[in-house]
Amino acid sequence: xxxxxxxxxxxxxxxxxxxxxxxxxxxxxxxxxxxxxxxxxxxxxxxxxxxxxxxxxxxxxxxxxxxxxxxxxxxxxxxxxxxxxxxxxxxxxxxxxxxxxxxxxxxxxxxxxx
Length: 114
Fold this sequence. Notes:
By secondary structure, the protein is α+β, with helices and mostly antiparallel strands. It has helices spanning about 10-20, 40-45, 50-55, 60-65, 75-85, 105-110, and strands at about 1-5, 25-30, 90-95, 100.
């Protein structure tokens, strides 16, 4: 089963959900606003994707927390991702032991053999 991590009202998450519906691909949504993501999940993702791809330094949450001023190192970024899930770039899609971060239609077409 494909699992999509994000928030329902995020444009990129809406695009990926629409893509899956259009191609009749079953998925399950994990909503950061209603569910707490365990830090072990973030650590597992970081075995497959770079921290700078997963950590959203362009988000409203990042700006509101004034994290740019802290000049975070990798370990600190991981701690912040665990503490504040809205810092995770969305969507994160898990399938077949793979992790995709963000939405790029061509990448999804290739990954899902469409």
